Amino acid sequence: MRHNGRVPRTLAVANQKGGVAKTTTVATLGAALGELGQRVLLVDLDPQACLTFSVGIDPEDLDKSIHHVLLGGVKARDVLVEFDDAPDLVPATIELANAEVQLARESSPEQALRTALRPLRSSYDWIIVDCPPTLGLLTVNGLSAASDVLIPLQCETLAHRGVGQLLDTVHDVQQLTNPSLRVLGVLPTLYDGRTTHARAVLETIADTYSLDVLQPAIPKSIRFAEAPAIGETVLSTAPASPGAKAYRALAGALLH
Ligand code: ADP
Ligand code: MG
């Protein structure tokens, strides 16, 4: 089911907490949508460039990246890394760490990504943006460019502590730059459903903030650690694993 001639769904994957599987979700969900015949573009908005690394690109080898697109007038198409059998990538490099200060001096600094991606939109069904673990201008750019925000959440005590702040930022973006931004929901990650604790935390968060909980939860599995080091996702390194199945099921659910 392609969005023929329609605008792509643009998902911002955001949570200012690190280590909640944002990058893993972008790479794996993107690959799973690709398996379903969708044309997918991944965008690395994190100066740590973990997404770029995890698809097998060494940022040190890149002359130009998202940083030059946001600030240097370079076209997104000119930094695009295209793959035959995996989603395309707009890569990041460490230079992006300075971008927030420089962007803040531009006019409409929160709209830079949206503007930069516009010429690419007709080439994709899905654009998935990996936000950094902050609520600064880069994440605001991701949210401003998005149709939907997906919030990966590790279901532990205190996991909810940043959720209110993140939703405040989403509301600011809805008011200021992107009224049609929707919160798709929270995605339970690193989930151990055997513990009643994880389920209880999840229910509390969903109730407190009136958020949808996306299904299925992504199970905690050691298999996730291996894949990025070789530029792959669990879909190829452990195709029959519960984690791979969960991301495939999530991709299927998002298409319907
Ligand atoms: P973030 O982008 O939010 O900082 P990452 O996607 O980089 O988070 O994930 C943080 C760490 O957790 C990585 O080492 C990753 O391999 C691991 N990880 C991600 N998802 C899972 C999972 N479902 N089970 C176990 N480990 C996971
Ligand atoms: Mg990350």
Automatic annotation (TrEMBL):
It comes from the Bacteria. Pfam families: AAA_31 (PF13614). Residues 9-182 form the AAA domain. May play a role in septum formation. Belongs to the ParA family. PANTHER family: COBYRINIC ACID AC-DIAMIDE SYNTHASE, P-LOOP CONTAINING NUCLEOSIDE TRIPHOSPHATE HYDROLASE. This is Chromosome partitioning protein.
